[in-house]
Amino acid sequence: MDFFKRYGAIGPSQQQSPSETIQRLADRVETSTLLEDKRAAVLSLKGLSREYRKETGEAALSALLTVLKENREDQNLLKAVLETLTNLCTRDSPQGGTTNVGAAAGDIAAQFSQAILDDNDDVISVLLELLGDADFYVRYYTVQLLGTLHMHAGENLQKRVLVSPTGVGRLVDLLSDQRDIIRNEGIQLLIAMTESNADIQKIVAFENAFDRLLGIVDEEGGVRGNIVVQDCLQLLHNLLNYNVSNQNFFRETSGIQRLPSLLITDPSQTAAGRNGTAGFDADEEIEWTAQHARNMLVVLDVIRMLIQSGNTNTVSNQTAMQQCGIIPPLLQLALAYEAPSSVRSQALYAIGDIIRSHEANQNLFQRILITAAPEDEDVDAKPIPEPAIVIVIRLSVGKRPQGVAENEYYIVRAAAAYLVQAYVGSNPDAQLALAATLTPPGDADTATEPEKHQSAGSLIVSVLLDWRETGSEDVWRVWYASLLLSTILRDFTECKEQALKISIGDESKGEEPISLLNELISQARQAAQDGASARISLAMLTLICVWLADFPKGVATFLDESANVSFIVEQINGSSGVNALVQGVAAFLFGLIYQFDIDSETPMSREDLYPILSKRVGADQLLVRVQRLRDAKEFQYAVGLAAGTHSNAYGGIPNEVYFDNVFTDMFKQHYEGFRAAVRLSPNEALANPNYAYLQGGMAGYAGSVASGSAPGTPSLAAAGISRAASPAIPLATSVSAPSAHAQSMESVISKSELEALQAQLVDQAQQIENLQRELAEAAAGSKQSVESTEDSSEISQMLAQERELREKAEAERDAQAAQVESLSAELERLQKQNLESALSPENPDAAQLASLENQLSELRVKSEADTSSWNSERAELQKKLANAEKQVVKAAAAVRNTSKKKEQQQTAALENLQKDVKAKDEEIAKLKAQIAELESQVKEIAQVSELKSKLASMEKEQEDLLVYLADQDQQAKEYRALLRKHGEDIPLSDDDDDEE
C-alpha cells in the first residue's frame, strides 16, 4: 500500500507518462532485493501489459525472464510473471476498422514470443520443469504460455521440446492430471504439437498416450460425451495419421480391439452373433446431438485411416478389425435411421474399407444376417432375417425415409454403393451370387412397396423398370441401380449371360416376353420421349455399354429389335433437345455394337450396320460425339474419383455427378479399339492384320503389340527380305553339279580322293545354305523387333546385331567361295593328271577320257555362270538390306520424335499440376492463418468479457465496502454519544464537530 501511496502523492504537475511508469516498475523488478517489492512491481506490470503491451515488453521482458529463472520458490510471484508473459505474447483481436492495428499487435506478440524462445538460458526448459509444479495456477498458466508460444513459433518450440530429455513426457503427464482444466489445456497443446511432427507423435505414443486418451474418453461418457471426448479422439487421430510405426504400435497394444466399444452409442445395444445375426430394435431411439455426431465422425475417420488402400499394414489392420468384431456395430450404426446421414455414410464407407480386397472379411460379411423389427403392429409376426448385402443394396436404391431431404440422404446412397462395390471387387463368387438373384419384379405393387421381400437383384431390376410410377424423386435411385447392376456385370461373361436370360412379361397374362436388355433400351427411349432427367437416360445407356462390351451374344440380342438401332441413331443425330452427354454415350454404344457384332447368329451383320455408320451417322461425326463426351467436365470429374465416392464426406449432391467409375473404366479400356473399328468397313476389318485388336479393345491391342501388328507400331517393307534364302537353291545346285560329274570320273580318278572332294563340296554347300537361312531369319527377326518395340535404343541395338550378323555371313560366304575355287582347282589338277595318264600309249580308253574332258569344260562354264548369278543375287540382297536399314532408321527416328513429344506434353502437364498444387497450398495457408487469427480473436473476446465481469465484481465490492464504512462511522458516533451520556470524557472528533 505504501508503494501506491507514494505514486498517489505525486501532484498534477508531476504526473508520469505510461512509459516512464513501466520503466520504473521494470527497474524495480530487476533491482529490488525484497520479494514483496518484486511481487508488487510484477503485479503492476501485469495490469499494464494488456493496454501497453509494446512498452511493457520492451522494458520488462528481460527482467521478467530473469525472475522466472531465479525466483521459482515464490508461487505468487511465479503466477504473476507467467500471466504477464502470456499477456505479452497474446495477440489482440482487431475491432471494427482497426485491422491494421490488430495486425501490428500480432507482430509485436510474435516478436516477444520469438525473444522468449531465443533466450540463451533456455526458458523453455524452465517452463517444462514448471509443468511438474504442484501449484494449480503455476501449472495452468505454464500450459497457457506454452500454447501461446506454439501459436506464434510452433516449429521452434517443438525443436526445444524435443531437445529436453523429459519435455514430451511432462506434456503427456498432463493427461493424467486430476484437475480437468489443466488436463484439457494439455490435450489442446498436444493436439497442436502432434499435428505435423512425426517425432513428437512417436514419443507421445510410446508414453502410453493411447491408453490414457481412451481412458479419458471412457471417463467422459464415451462418444456421447462432451467436447473433451472430441479433443481426445482428435489427438488419437493426429498420433496415427501418416505414421506407420504408431499404427503398428496401436495394433500391437490392442488399440484396435478397443474401437468397437466406441461405436456402441448405448450400452444396452448389442450386436448378437459376431459372425451371425445382428439384432436391431427399432423401438430404441437414441437422441443424437451435434457433439455426439462430431465425436462419432472422428472415431470413424480413425478406423478408415487405419485401412487406407495401398498401405503396407492395411491387410493386418483389416484382419485385426474383423477378429475384434467391429463389423456388426458398424452395421448397426449404418442402419440407425435416427443417426445423422453423415455418420451413417461414414460407417458404410468404413465397412467397405474393411472388406475391400480381403477374402475372409468378404466371406464374413456375406454370412451376416440382420433381423429387423416388424413394421406393422402385429405381435404374432416374426421378424425375417435378411442378408446384410440385401439391406445395404436397399439403402442405395430404396425409397428415401420420410422427413429426410434427398440432398442429405444422397450421401447414404453413395456410401452403400461403395460398400457393394467393395464386396464384389476381387470376389467373383459374390458377383455370380448377386447375378443369380437378378429376377423380374413379382406381382407385388412395386410402386408402393418396391422393397418388401425382394432379393437384391430383383430390387435392382424393379427400380430400373418402374421408375416412372413413383415420380421424379427416383432419379438417384435409378442412377445407383444402374451402377450396382454394372458392378455385377462388369468383365464377367457368365454374369452377363445370366442377366441376358431374364425376360420381362408374363405369357400367361398375354404379355409378350422381352429380354431385360431390350426392356432397358425401351426405358431409355421412354425417358427421352418424356423429357426426363438426363441422368436417367445416361444411367440406362451406360449400363448397356458395360453389358455389351466384349459380349457378342448380347450385341446379337440387342440387334433383335431393329427399333433399338434406330433409337440410338436418333440420339446421335439429334440436333436439338438431346443432351450432349447422351449423344456421346449413344455414339460410343453404337461403336461398341459395330465393333463386337461378330456373333454367328446375329440378326444384323456388320455389312448391315456399315451403311448406317457410313451414311446415316458418319464415322467422323461418331468420333466427334465421343471425343466431346471424353472432354466433358462431367466425364473428367468421374474419372478423377475413386470407386463409389460420388459425394463429399458429409453431405450434398455434386452437380458434376453423371457417370460412375464402372463406365469410365470400361470406356478407357475400349476407347482405342472403338476408334480403330469404326474407321474400317467389314471387309477392311477382316483383311486387317489387327482384326483381333479391333475385337478385343486393349486386350486385343496388347496381343497385337506383342506380335508387332498393332496400329501405330513401326513396320518395315519386307519385300525382298523374305527371299533372302532363295539364292541357296541355285547355289546348292551349282555346287552339287561338280559332285555329280565327279562321280562319273571315279573310274579314272583315285576313288578315295574323289569321295573326299565330294563330301567336302557337299558340306560347303550345306554351310552356305545354313548361313543364308540364318541371315533371312535375322532380317525377319529385326523386322519384328522393330515393329514390336517403341524404344529407340532397342531398335539401334537390333540394327547393330543385324549388321554384325550380315557381315559375318558375307565373310563366311567369301571364305566358302574361295574354298570352292580351291577345290575346283584341285579337281582340275587331278583331272589333268588322269588325262595325261589316259593319253599315254598304255591307256586304251582315250576316247572316254576325251569325253570326260568335254564334260569338265561344260562344268567350268556352268560353274562360272552359277557364280555370276550368285554375285548378282548377292548384290541385290545387299541393296535390299540397305533399304531395309534405312526404313528402320526412319522408323526409329519417328518413334524417337513421338516419345519426345509425349515427354514434352507430360512435362508441361506436370508443371501445370505443380502450379495448381502450389496455388492450392497458398490458399490453404491463407485460410489457416485466417482461422488462427479468428481463434485468437475469440479467445481475446472471452478474456475481455472475463475482465469486464471481474471489474464489475470489484466495483460492486467497492460499493459494498463504502456502505460498510458508512455504517461503521455511524455506529462509532452513536457509541461516542452513548459514552458521553454515561459520563465518559470523550474528546470531540472532526465528524462530531460537523454533526454539531
UniProtKB/TrEMBL annotation:
ARM repeats lie at residues 59-93. It comes from the Eukaryota. Its EC number is 2.1.1.319. PROSITE patterns: ARM_REPEAT. InterPro entries: ARM-like (IPR011989), ARM-type_fold (IPR016024), Armadillo (IPR000225), Vesicle_P115 (IPR024095), Vesicle_Uso1_P115_head (IPR006953). Residues 12-21 have a biased composition (Polar residues). This is Vesicle-mediated ER to Golgi transport protein.
